[in-house]
Every structure is written in C-alpha cells, then in structure tokens.
Amino acid sequence: MRILRRFVRLPVLVAMVVACALLFAAVGMAIAPHTERALTAVDRERQIVELDLSPGAQRTEVYDSLGNQIGILRYDIDRELITLDRIPVDVVATILAVEDDKFWEHNGVDLRATVRALVSNVSAGGINQGGSTITQQIIKLRVVGNERSFNRKIREAVLAARLEEEFTKDQILEFYLNEIYFGNGAYGLQAAAETYFGKDVSRLDVGDAAFLAGLIRSPSIYDGFDQNIELVERRRSQSLQRAEEEAIIDARLRAAFQERDLPDRNRSPQRTDLNLRRDYFLDEVTEALLEHPALGEDYSERFASVYNGGLRVWTTFDPVMQGHMEDARDEIFPNGTGDFEISIAAVDPSTGAIKAFIGGPEFAEFQFNLATQGKRQPGSSFKTYVLAAAIERGGLYPFDTISGEGPCEFPNPPAPDYVVNNFGRSKGSVGSVLQMTLASSNCAFVRLGLRTGLDEVVDIANRMIGRTEENSFQPFPSISLGAQEVTPLEQAIGYSVIANDGVRMEPFYISRIEDRNGNVVYEHIPRGRRVLSSETAAWVTSALAANVQAGTGGRARLASGQPAAGKTGTAQDFSDAWFVGFTPQLATAVWMGHPEEKVSMTDVQGRSGTGGWIPARVWGAFMSRALDGSAIEDFPEQPPWGRRSQFIFLDSDKCTIEVELYPEQPPLEFELTCNLVDVDTREEKFVPRDDAVCEITVIGEDSVARRERVRCSEVRDRLTTTTTTTTTTTTIPETVPPSTPAPTGPPPTGGPTTATPTTAPPTTAPPTTAPPTTAPPTTAPPTTAGG
Q: Residues 734, 676: contact at Cβ < 8 Å?
C-alpha cells in the first residue's frame, strides 16, 4: 500500500520539478537583458561609491542658562539622534521582526526573502513586492534611490553586502532607526516617539513599536492622524502577530495592545510643552544664530546649520528671572494692563549677557518684540546720556550750577526758536546739575546738552547704547529730552555701562554652540571696551542713586537696602513711560505704553501714567525679586571735587535778577546776559555781579523821563532816593552775544563762557522743594519730555 502511494505521488513531484524549472527559466529570461549592464555598473560602483553612515538633517536644540531645553529649531525635518542602548530591546526586536527578521544572520541580503519577492514580481510583470533587508533599505536611501528596476535591485544587493563588510550590525541598525521616516514630519525613532506618543524613545513598548513598524513602508498613510485608519490598524495587527510569532509578546499582551486607540494628534513637546513653543527670546536667539559667523560664511550655510545641523545651543536666558518679571508686572497690575503693555529687559553689566525680557503679549498673537523692536521716545530717561556726555566730554560736574527756569527758548536756525516748558509747566529754579537731575528739569538739560555740544551727546549715547552711523542719533536740541526713539533693551544696555564702571560689555544671547557630534564650535568670551571713564561713571551713578533716594525715582527703592540708581522718563502726552536703572549686579529697563500706537495714559490706576508712577514700581518689584538672597553691593564712592562749582550757561542765555525796592511791592526784574550774574545758591536765584549794569527810567525835577544806566547793585538806592520814578523790567546788555549753534552741529569754537560765582559752591544734597507735578505740559513742542 505504501509503495502504491509513492507511485501515485511520483507524477505530482515530476510536475513540480518541471514547474520550478520553467519558473527559473522565466526568471532568467526576464533578467537576461539587464545582466551585463547591471553587473558592469555594480562592478564600477563597488569600487568608487563611498558608503557613508553620517546622520541626515537634524533639529537644533536650544537650552537656557540652567541647562533646560527651551526650544527646537527645524525646517521640514524633525530628527534627534539617539544611541541603540536607549531603545528598549523588545522595541528593536519588534521592528526587526516586521522589517528584517534575519538581520542578525544575513550579510546584507536575505536570499530567501529576495527569491520570494522575485517570484512575486515576475508573476506581476514588474516590481510588486519588497524583500529588501534593512541594509538594502539604507543603500536605497543613500545611494541607488527609488528607481523600480532590476538594475537597481542588483546594485542595491551588491552594495548592501559591501556595507555589511565596512560597518558593524549595531552601527547599521542605529543609523537605520535614526534615519527612517515615520510620517507627520518625524524622522527617526526618537522624533516618532514624541510625535505619536509624546514620550521619550526609552519609554516605548511593543504596542508602540508595532504601530510605528506598520508606518515604515508607507509613512504618509497616516499624515494628519485621520487617514487610512483601517489600513493602519491592520498593519499594526500584522506587526503584533509577528511579535507574537517571534515570542516577543504572548497572546494576552497582543490582545491588549490591539485594543489601544490609535494616536489622534501630534503629541510632540514642540506642540504641547509651553517651554518649547516659539517665543520672543527664542526668536532673538534664532536671529543671532542665523547671523553667527561660526555657523557658515553666508546665510544659506548658516540656515542649513541652524535648521538641519543638529546643533546644541546654550543661551543666556534665565527662566527664574523671566518669572520674576512676569510676577512683578502682575503684582502692580493684578487685573491686567488693559490696552497697554509692559516691556522689561535685563542685562548683566559685568558680562553683557541678556538675561530675560518681556517682549509683549502672547507671542503667537503678536510676534512684535517690544523689548528689541519697540522703539519709543524715552523722555527724561535719556537725560542720563546727556549727563554722562557733560561730565565725560564737557568737563562739567553734578555740583556745577545751571538754570532750570522755564519756560525757556533757544535759537534753532533755520527752524523757529525751540521753546521748552518744564514738566507740568513748572517755573523751575536755579541749582546744581544734581538738583536739576532730581527735579528732571527740561530747561536745565537742554542747556546742558547745548553747553556740552550736541555732537558729543550723540557720540556718547551711540557708544553707550551700541548704535552705528547707520542708525545714529541726530544732534538736535530736543535729543536732550528724549525725542529720538530707543528700545527697552537698548536702554538696559546703555545703563549697564554706568553700572560696569564705564565699560560697555558686548551684549549677547548665545554662550556656547556644539555640533551634532558634541564638538564645541563656539564659546562666548566676554568682550568690552571703555566708553566712559571710571570717574564719569561714578559721578553719574551718584546722581542717579540720589534720584532713587530723593528724586522722581523714589518708588523704585529696594526694601532690602540694596543701593539702586535710575531715571524716570515720560514722553509727551503720557504716551510712553519709563524707568531705567541698575544695581552693581543688574541693569533693567521698564517701559509702559500702547503696543501699536501712541495713546495717552491719562488714567492708569487713578493717575497719569508717568515713569515715576508705574514703571518705577514695576522696576522695584522686579529687582527686589531678582536680587532676593543676593549679598548687598555698594556703588563706588562719589569722586572728590576737583574744583569749585561753576555756573553753566550759554552765550545766548539771559538771566533774570530781582531788585526789591519796598517789602510791600513785588521786586523789579532785570534781564541780563548770564555772564553778568552770579548765583546765590542758598536762595537759588541770580544776583548781579559788581560790573553788571541795569537800565532804568528816571523822571527828574523837570518832569522829563530819562534813561539811566547804573550798576545793578545801586538800582535800589538810586530809585528810592528819586521823588518820582518809572523803571523798566529789561536792560540792554553790554555786548551782543553770539547766536546759539544750529541743531546739526556743536557750538562754535570757544563756546559759551563759564562764570565762577563768589558764593560757596552748592552741596549735592537734594532740593528742598518737591519734584515736578505729574500734570501734562500744554504748550511745549512734541519733543518735550517729562520726569
């Protein structure tokens, strides 16, 4: 019976052998036309093709000063390189079970899988089925491309064998898992783990791996997370089946993984982690990277490095300080700022590191950085640069005397005369430059700027802030009152020069850059240059410190006792309000205003929005938090007086003296050129010098009015001894003074003279009168600034 069965089977076996022979003949006939050309190409390529497993384009990762990741920069490829040991073993096994179950055994080509695919393709009349190993897939990605031909398959197989000769299995597998595309922008297993599951690759399991393995052959089938759902589920099921067949999981786990929902949205930290979303600081870092010479000679090279180079970038950003800024703003405005915005910028004076800033409202909605792009009139906060220039270039000092009386008028050819009012239309007074700083006197600082030379003010302001000829300030008289616009960051940088003993450190965002292999391509070395002398910096510091203690900046005082220095600023019509100041450790600017246009802040928490009302309080609240726990550091001591106080005036200035005739009558006023007066610092008024002459009208015994010129010191005696007199309130000066220089240049050679009063020099103590009121000026030109 057994022999009979074998005899019956014999024809079947013969038929199978014949069929196989015919099949191989057909295969031979199919590939014969391609053989010679393919083998020639392969032989050539095997000798000359360079096989490279360097990684493809990678995202750049950005970190703060504490080492926390704050951003990811990429163009169209999201990839982060990982090492094989970070991937769970069963995840790797599942992917191999689906993609190349003989990976650890073959030498680049799986002959059984290739024959199986070849039979299928011959039957279909073309390339219909894969069969490529992981090694062959790499060759397809890097060398031979996607051409659907037998020539390509032959080249692929031969080069795959060579690849296995030159690289280890671990190297090949690690490269593959970092290189392949999983759809939805995710390249490599780490990006795929983040995109689909919101987790690190080390936390993937077999269920996750089965889903991802199902995407490898057709990664775009699930783009958008809502396409081909049934197909994706079926592929995941097939992957789970292979995992069970390879004993990676059991039936129970397979069933559990099968019940999982498919990923329904992009869960990448770039989408879900607020700390990694594009924001104002990251935007500035990106711009700095795109201009960084270490990353390429031209923009295209730098762009490729930044968005595809896999860089690791460490920045100066201090997240704790950023939080303090937001807390300070919210403390002063617990119910929000309404239509207005607060911008804050902070710089480390000793290094130039830009620590943090508030750039505006939510970045996704606004994207205009008020801290770096929002140029607004700084008002009286610009007077600090005038003071620095007066000391550094003009040879003047805070203990010198100047007139702050207003309104005041200055020649401004060819334009009409420049008329200035003090803030709140205050009459002002005569006193030291320090007192004028504390009172934020507009008339005094316009005089100070003109006396110093407007070109000198421009040069010092440019150097402190960091402007070049292309964006330089202009030498107009109104510059002294902050009529030309600046940004909060520029202000913080400018004031940091004073805090750092007159040395301007180059501001920076980026402290270190590493390439994809961990090599340091850039390390920031702080660079600085002296802009002001140490003496000038100390004088300006002492004046601004007094302003916080007893001037318009009183609300910025720090409860800890840490010495602070700063200046308020309020633009015309209360459209912009500032407080800019520093301690030895930190320089900070605070601005408040409307983010898009000039809007008067006439009612902010029940008052006009001056720099001393809102920004000074925000500044104090922020700096108190930022310096909490830090040791108190003192400012340098005020330098000793090198000379006596001088009276500062312009050749065109007129000074008004008063002569009292009778106690019950108002005094007579005479206007003299200022070189004919001294200053009574105790009374804060002008007194005539011995050689000053006043002109009066006297009616003699014959009832005829006569003009007489007498010494001003003798006016009282002359008039009180005359029976009937008529006086004038003006006099003709001895000489005609030269005109005030045009606004585009410095004073003429020689400049205005300086007189030395006979009275003792004024002290640097603050004035006894209160600072100017916060009422807006009504007649000053648009460039008039406030306190």
A: yes
Cβ atoms 429, 385 nearer than 8 A: no
pLDDT at 603 over 60: yes
Q: Rounded to the nearest 5°, which phi and psi values hold at 391? A: -75, -45
Check whether residue 564 and residue 702 sit in a common domain.
no
Q: CA-to-CA distance for 347 and 498, rounded, in angstroms?
A: 12
- pLDDT tens digits, one per residue of 735-766: 333 333 333 333 333 333 333 343 333 333 33
Q: Is residue 17 one of the residues assigned to a domain?
A: yes
CATH classification of the domain holding 616 = 3.40.710.10
All residues at 6 or more sequence positions from 726 whose CB lies less than 8 Å from its CB, including other chains? 697, 698, 699, 705
Q: Domain range holding 669? A: 653-737
Q: For the segment 346-399, what is each residue's pLDDT rounded down to a tens digit?
A: 999 999 999 999 998 877 677 799 999 999 999 999 999 999 999 999 999 999
Per residue in 684-736, pLDDT (tens digit) is: 889 999 999 999 988 888 888 889 999 999 998 888 876 444 444 444 443 33
450 shares its domain with 594: yes
Q: Which two tokens stand for residue 550?
A: 């007893």
167 with 205, same domain: the answer is yes
Same domain membership, residue 392 and residue 446: yes
Please check whether residue 335 lies inside any domain of the structure: no
> Domain count of the chain?
3
**Residue 343 is assigned to a structural domain of this protein:** no
Query: Residue 473 domain-assigned?
Result: yes
Q: Which residues of 465-488 are buried (b: 16+ CB within 10 A; e: fewer)?
A: bbbeeeeebebbbbbbbbbbebbb
Specify the pairing of strand 60-63 against strand 312-315. Answer: parallel
Question: Tokens for 183?
Answer: 């759809």
Compute CA distances 26 → 31, 121, 123, 436, whole Å.
Answer: 9, 12, 10, 103
Number of CB atoms found within 10 A of residue 745's CB: 11
3-state secondary structure 407-427: CEEECCCCCCCEEECCHHHCC
Q: CB of 269 within 8 A of CB of 276?
A: yes
Cα(188)–Cα(171) distance, rounded to whole angstroms? 15
pLDDT range class, residue 772, cuts 50, 70, 90: very low
Adjacent-strand bridge partners of 344: 358, 590
Q: How far apart are CA 29 and CA 687, in angstroms?
A: 120
Residues 548 and 620 in one domain: yes
Looking at the structure, do residues 622 and 657 belong to the same domain, yes or no? no
What DSSP assignment string belongs to 500-538?
TTTEEEPPBSEEEEE-TTS-EEEE----EEE-S-HHHHH
Burial code (b: 16+ CB inside 10 Å, e: under 16) for 118-149 equals: bbebbeeeebeebbbbbbbbbbbbbbbeeeee
SS3 693: strand
Whether 593 and 681 map to the same domain: the answer is: no
Question: Of 267, 282, 299, which residue sits at a domain end?
Answer: 267
Same-domain pairing of 612 and 687: no
CA angle in degrees (0–180, nearest 5) for 92-97-102:
100
Residue type, 335: N
Tell me, what CATH number does 107's domain have? 1.10.3810.10
